[in-house]
Amino acid sequence: MHSTNYFNTLIEIAEDSRAQIGQIPPTTKGTPSVARLQFEMLHDQPYKYTSDDVLFTVFAIRNNIPESEREEQRGIYFAKGRPCFRASPLTKRYGWGIHSNCEGKIALYSANSQEYQKLIADETVKKKKAMRSKRK
User: What residues pair up with 32 in beta bridges, in sequence order?
Assistant: First the structure.
């Protein structure tokens, strides 16, 4: 099984992100976007979920996978490699850093927050940049 989880790592906002602060992703036509669903899972529940938990749950919601089938479908979903939060619109477009603690549980931090700046300065925390939206 492939995993998207990081440990003791900060995924920094993308170099080409225009967001200076964390923005709440909008819903489009009454349907929450991938970014909005990820945001809703993480915003009020820091360090509750792993990256794998969030990415699969959002996939399951958007694909109407019933709860009774999710365990089996999760194994199928992670049988091949999946993009991690470095490719998430939260880190690429909406100004959110994603911190993984030593257990692999994740939390959101706005790019302008003191917590985000502390994580950037902390030499014990690994850093990964979110993927750029445009090629150089």
Answer: 27
Half-sphere exposure of 132 (CA within 13 A, CB side): 5
Q: What is the pLDDT of residues 58-93, one digit of tens each?
A: 999 999 999 999 999 999 999 999 999 999 999 999
The tokens describing 91, both together, are 């880190």
Give percent helix, percent strand, percent coil of the chain, each to the nearest 5.
35, 20, 45
pLDDT band at 1 (very low <50, low <70, confident <90, very high): confident
| Residue 71 phi, psi dihedral angles, 5° rounding | -60, -45
Q: Other C-beta atoms within 10 Å of 56: how many?
A: 21
Nearest by Cα to 34 from 51, 57, 52, 50: 57
CA distance 48 to 36: 17
Using the predicted structure, report yes or no on whether residue 31 has a pLDDT greater than 90: no
Under the phi-then-psi rule, with left for phi > 0, alpha for psi from -120 to 50, and beta for the rest, what region is 82? beta
Task: Give me the residue label for tokens 């257990």.
Answer: 103
pTM for the model stands at: 0.92
Q: Which amino acid type is present at position 68?
A: S
